[in-house]
């Protein structure tokens, strides 16, 4: 990674001399940008990730519009028709004249069926049929490999049924105003969609909301919902039936068109929540369920109907919840629609046009250094005993990195699309995906599958596959540039790599072994020592409140997994950087030492500002801490940062060495 001709990777003109890095590294690096930047009117937050995502959207739009959309009519076929299908999907979304002409007509049949529901069994049947077509049902369901046996696929059944972001929105006083807006929003949408007028819409809205509130009462909160050991509850179909006796699962699956055998054994992730919803499937609640179903149909389809209906839906889910005053431009939403339907078909062309294969080689080298730095660190841990250490090293040896794009691309031949049928396209996409996912059960695990597209600006760790994945679109500034000196690349993308590896050893990922199996491979003493360290980190974040939150604190328990990833990622990235130097001293470039370039690159990667509404929403539901703390609180724990900047007691980022946390 070292290169005599390398540049620092740091724009010195962007550094704010009015803010000392010892006091606030985040604003020292990003303060000028924050001061001059207005959050775009269609965004709730804006920063480095959003800028790269916008660039990727523009690149994808050029790919999509490179093929003329076929005339209306179903397009079938395999790879040779992919470009036509992509163009047709986009054209169907961009045809606002047709959308406005149709209004709510595309869902009129579904609305009529929902209105006519006269019994609970009929309700269950209609919900099941619509769920296959992408309308939210009673529960969340997805397919993944089995945490107890990672060599097989299994269906997960999760809590569901709500229209607000989280169960806390139905009970916490801080969301009282949002609840009132939500009830009014339901009524407005039912009116606009022609479901009911004025007083009747108000009555239905109240019924739907009250039912959701009762459903939410049995939901697990966000902290409990991330505890994999509590979530992992294997049940046979008969066992699932016992949890939810009022829901006939065999009839439900038959009406859904789901193969019963795929549900022979499932993970009933939150049994109390599953049971709580099913207890409400009684005749006394039928009128409320009809209102709930009508709202589910409208809510699930609103973005695909007239511009008036789509905008009204955004008024709540965009403006009220996140603070963004304007919808994204239609073409950007059209790009998202296409990517949700045929993301890898677009991704293949994106990679051909925008991915430098040299980046993949450089990333391979970076990953190698990070893995070895983790290995060295694990071998030196004072709090970990030999038995757990051996298993940790075995897990590290089994990590699979994936960089850039999949080795094989998804097959979209089963999907038929029509440039003149937007809602129909959405429903067909949902049905094909439904069949594809459930079709995995009983088949060998496909370890080549990706769960992000190459044009996604993000990365992930998959505990069941024990893999770290870095899509092509994140491999660019401010995260990575082949021309940068190694310090900047290690401080930015290197820390991202370290973060994702760190998820394999966070409070939840550490419960999986190297094969992706959920098993207790720790000694009791080592787990207790680990939890003592994580408890200290939780306490640090519980004491923080970001700008714009009106004093609301970070939830240290909700964010602990990501905070461990950040802490371990940056700490190990620093060790990996030193390792890459082979014993040489870091060069001084642009007047900056290697350590300064490393930490400045880390800070510029977290560049972001948010609207207050979005800040509060994310504090409630997001397992990531606010960006200012992902930057600043992490470096407070790292001795190399304090050494690089000569911090002293009284400095904003000073943390007494006795209070600093180092886990991995």
Automatic annotation (TrEMBL):
Residues 21-406 form the Peptidase M13 N-terminal domain. Pfam families: Peptidase_M13, Peptidase_M13_N. CDD domains: M13. Its cofactor is Zn(2+). Keywords: Hydrolase, Metal-binding, Metalloprotease, Protease, Zinc. This is Peptidase M13. Belongs to the peptidase M13 family. Residues 458-661 form the Peptidase M13 C-terminal domain. The lineage of its organism: Bacteria, Bacillati, Actinomycetota, Actinomycetes, Micrococcales. Coiled coil: none annotated. InterPro entries: MetalloPept_cat_dom_sf, Peptidase_M13, Peptidase_M13_C, Peptidase_M13_dom_2, Peptidase_M13_N.
């Amino acid at each position: 990674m070292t290169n005599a001709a390398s540049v620092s990777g740091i724009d010195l003109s962007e550094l704010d001399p009015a803010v000392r890095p010892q006091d606030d590294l985040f604003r020292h690096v990003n303060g000028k940008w924050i001061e001059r930047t207005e959050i775009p009117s269609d965004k709730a937050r804006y920063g480095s990730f959003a800028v790269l995502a916008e660039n990727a959207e523009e690149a994808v739009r050029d790919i999509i519009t490179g093929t003329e959309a076929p005339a209306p009519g179903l397009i079938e076929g395999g790879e040779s028709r992919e470009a036509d299908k992509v163009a047709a999907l986009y054209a169907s979304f961009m045809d606002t004249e047709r959308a406005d002409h149709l209004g709510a007509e595309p869902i009129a049949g579904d609305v009529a069926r929902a209105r006519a529901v006269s019994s609970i069994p009929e309700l269950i049947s209609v919900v099941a049929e619509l769920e296959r077509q992408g309308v939210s049902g009673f529960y969340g369901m997805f397919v993944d490999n089995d945490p107890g046996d990672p060599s097989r696929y299994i269906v997960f059944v999760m809590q569901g049924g709500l229209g607000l972001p989280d169960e806390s929105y139905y009970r916490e006083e801080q969301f009282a105003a949002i609840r009132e807006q939500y009830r009014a929003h339901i009524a407005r949408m039912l009116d606009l969609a022609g479901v009911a007028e004025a007083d009747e819409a108000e009555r239905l809205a109240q019924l739907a909301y009250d039912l959701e509130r009762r459903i939410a009462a049995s939901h697990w909160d966000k902290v409990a919902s991330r505890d994999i050991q509590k979530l992992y509850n294997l049940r046979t179909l008969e066992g699932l039936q016992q949890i939810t006796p009022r829901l006939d699962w065999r009839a439900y699956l038959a009406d859904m068109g789901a193969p019963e055998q795929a549900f022979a054994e499932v993970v009933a992730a939150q049994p109390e929540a599953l049971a709580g919803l099913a207890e409400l499937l009684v005749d006394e609640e039928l009128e409320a369920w009809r209102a709930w179903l009508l709202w589910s149909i409208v809510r699930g389809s609103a973005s695909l109907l007239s511009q008036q209906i789509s905008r009204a839906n955004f008024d709540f889910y965009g403006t009220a919840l996140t603070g963004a005053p304007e919808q994204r431009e239609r073409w950007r939403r059209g790009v998202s629609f296409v990517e949700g339907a045929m993301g890898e078909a677009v991704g293949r062309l994106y990679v051909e046009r925008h991915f430098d294969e040299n980046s993949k080689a450089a990333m391979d080298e970076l990953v190698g250094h990070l893995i070895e730095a983790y290995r060295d660190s694990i071998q030196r841990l004072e709090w970990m005993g030999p038995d757990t250490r051996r298993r940790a090293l075995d897990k590290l040896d089994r990590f699979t990195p994936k960089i850039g794009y999949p080795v094989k691309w998804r097959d979209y031949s089963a999907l038929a699309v029509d440039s003149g049928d937007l809602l129909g396209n959405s429903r067909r996409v949902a049905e094909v995906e439904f069949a594809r996912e459930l079709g995995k059960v009983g088949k060998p695990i496909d370890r080549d599958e990706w769960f992000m597209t190459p044009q996604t600006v993000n990365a992930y760790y998959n505990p069941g596959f024990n893999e770290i994945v870095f899509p092509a679109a994140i491999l660019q500034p401010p995260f990575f540039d082949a021309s940068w000196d190694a310090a900047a690349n290690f401080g930015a993308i290197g820390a991202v790599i370290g973060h994702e590896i760190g998820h394999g050893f966070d409070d939840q990922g550490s419960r999986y072994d190297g094969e992706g199996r959920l098993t207790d491979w720790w000694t009791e003493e080592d787990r207790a020592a680990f939890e003592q360290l994580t408890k200290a980190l939780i306490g640090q974040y519980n004491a923080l409140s970001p700008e714009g939150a009106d004093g609301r604190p970070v939830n240290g328990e909700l964010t602990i997994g990501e905070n461990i990833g950040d802490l371990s990622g940056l700490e190990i990235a620093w060790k990996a950087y030193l390792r890459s130097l082979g014993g040489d001293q870091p060069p001084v470039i642009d007047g900056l030492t290697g350590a300064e370039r490393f930490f400045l690159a880390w800070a510029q990667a977290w560049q972001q500002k948010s609207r207050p509404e979005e800040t509060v929403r994310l504090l409630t539901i997001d397992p990531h801490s606010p960006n200012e703390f992902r930057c600043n609180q992490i470096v407070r724990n790292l001795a190399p940062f304090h050494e690089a900047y000569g911090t002293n007691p009284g400095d904003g980022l000073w943390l007494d060495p006795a209070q600093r946390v180092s886990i991995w």
